[in-house]
Amino acid sequence: MGKKKKSKKTAGWTGDVADLLRVGPDFDLASFDRGGTPGWDGDKTSAAAFMRKRGDELSDLQERLFADGKSDGTHSVLLLLQGIDTAGKGGIVRHVIGMVDPQGVALASFGVPTAEEASHHHLWRIRKQLPPPGKIGVFDRSHYEQVLVVKVDELEPPDVNATRYDELVDFDHEIVSGGTTLIKVAMMVSHAEQGERLKERLERPDKWWKYNPGDIDVRERWDDYQAAYSEMLTRTSTEEAPWYVIPADRKWYARLAVTELLYGALTDLDLAWPEADFDPKVELERLAETSRA
Amino acid sequence: MGKKKKSKKTAGWTGDVADLLRVGPDFDLASFDRGGTPGWDGDKTSAAAFMRKRGDELSDLQERLFADGKSDGTHSVLLLLQGIDTAGKGGIVRHVIGMVDPQGVALASFGVPTAEEASHHHLWRIRKQLPPPGKIGVFDRSHYEQVLVVKVDELEPPDVNATRYDELVDFDHEIVSGGTTLIKVAMMVSHAEQGERLKERLERPDKWWKYNPGDIDVRERWDDYQAAYSEMLTRTSTEEAPWYVIPADRKWYARLAVTELLYGALTDLDLAWPEADFDPKVELERLAETSRA
To answer: Do A198 and B102 touch (CB under 8 A)?
Structure first.
């Protein structure tokens, strides 16, 4: 198995995972290998060890972001997750976001709009959930559903829907202009792997609660969804807010790759600990005066 | 140090930690040992191993609660944290709540009320943050601030404040009646240990952001706060919503004890995985028809 050769010491990324997974002008979803592990020079075991290391580093970086937010900083990060049922969005939240302090996370999940939400512009409910400074926001589904389920199920007229791509690009610009690093992630599983995962949900009583008969309806429209994803990815991947496509057939790789994207985004912010807005010496003297020893 | 004797194998709780830490009629805060480790037959090292085990168990129990909530269940859990600055409330969120899936957690932090919040009854902002079914809610400070900072700083007339105890007990009853298991935790550090922790925040530039000169103002009113805590604990610890007082001078013990309280509450719910509201056989057939192999 080569397990010995790929020791913890040498396992790592062979290149910048952001560059490897970013959607550029030549991106072709149909030929994208969903079982691949691009850039990772190691196996599942070495990935687990690497994740623990990155977890500690992420935790530190997240605290710096949080501290910055408490001190009038304007930075935030928004990890936006898209993917068909079973692609592993929930696993990313649990296993990647779960590595950092819950106090620094703002999680939002976007399902079928409520009656109130549906009465507003589709961006209304999204805007309300944008992360405040200092936080790592996570969107489990997002405004991009407007060109996925809304398009596929024709929940609005096609001529209106066709205008959404530009609108979404503009909205991303609004987010980024506000000081938010936007990481747009599309998790892509293969048709076969999705079948296996749905099968598991049906065969295990402890997974039934995750299953919905509508999941099969969506699977039956696989080609329509793939076409919608393809159009979304190529039309809305911009320099300031690129899409990253994650091969998601191997859960461990998907988690490792998203971890790395988040790590890279936080590292790029290059945040120092905030300066004191008090005089530490004076405060230490005040503190000493409270002693009862 | 007896480290060998207290091996991982035998380390554990010698009794029900809920019984040991629950505030009963005879509770006396002044004589409470804040450096103690009641009920724990082990040291910091064995506690860490035990925490990992409990973390896995908590994760499973939390998922059952979440599944129950997705399936029309009405249960939720609310962990309410009170404690003076540096008592370690944030550490509980990070290290205890951080062990479960962020998707199952609803975290709320109550600081100085905003202008809008202050224009309403003090319970208005609290009620909005009560956890929905399926979630573990966490309150970092709570409605109990009304008989802590509000009382000590006389932010409302004493005769009005004196009516709050009954009101808080009634509100707890409202919470519990709605299907929420309420775990009220008061974390108590000693005066000396608080001094050490504030000192550390002042001496380490990476901790400055956690410090506020107001922390010393509060410390100067230590006796007033202790009196307020004492009155709160004895007057609002009820059978349906008891207070648990946690000795917090040893962070590892405080985290271990709160973990155990949460574990006990989730175990007591005794939740089974939800039944399927579909026919798994029929769905497996539908799934098979989507095969492209």
So the answer is: no
